[in-house]
Amino acid sequence: MRLLIVEDEKRLAASLAGGLTAEGFAVDVVHDGPEGLHRASGGGYDLVILDIMLPGMNGYRVCSNLRAAGHGVPILMLTAKDGEYDEAEGLDTGADDYLTKPFSYVVLVARVRALLRRRGAGSAAPVLTVGPLRIDTAARRVIRGEDDIALTAKEFAVLEQLALRAGQVVSKAEILEHVWDFAYDGDPNIVEVYISTLRRKLGAAAIRTVRGAGYRLEAV
User: Fold this and answer.
1) Model pTM score
2) How many CB atoms lie within 10 A of CB 84?
3) Is residue 209's pLDDT more than 80?
């Protein structure tokens, strides 16, 4: 899943990005309203974490502009303000949830996962079944039979992208886009490293390489 953080407090933004990356998300960060609106309008994000007090354009305007343009991406608003009026205004502009600073990081992650589950409720089950594998996207567990298969956050994120399109070819570029962040400029062969690790844990036949196209998760 790919997240966009729009937050002008750079230390807070970096801290959130680091934590959410460790949870297996691909995270991009911008620090002002106009750039946040531009990035979010381009699509490709599964959720936006949006501060209200931003330079250039406040979060209310960013949110209302996105909704007016027909963008349905879930938006979690952050603010140092407190009060029913501010919360109502945020929700009235189209935000899906609201969190007042200071907040618990654990609560933020729980809200993010809840919004992502809510968004996917109409299109994808929280538990994906591919052959003998059950991939619980809410609990971040992979189960085969009665056994749990231990995966790192990044391994799970790669597997999740394959499972969401099980039986279809998913390109290396698509995996990079959704599992690593926008600014990633390292070796694209990192995807092959994670595919190799997943094969060791799931079985060599579980993920097939389609030469020149990408990878396909098989129901074996």
Assistant:
1) 0.63
2) 7
3) yes
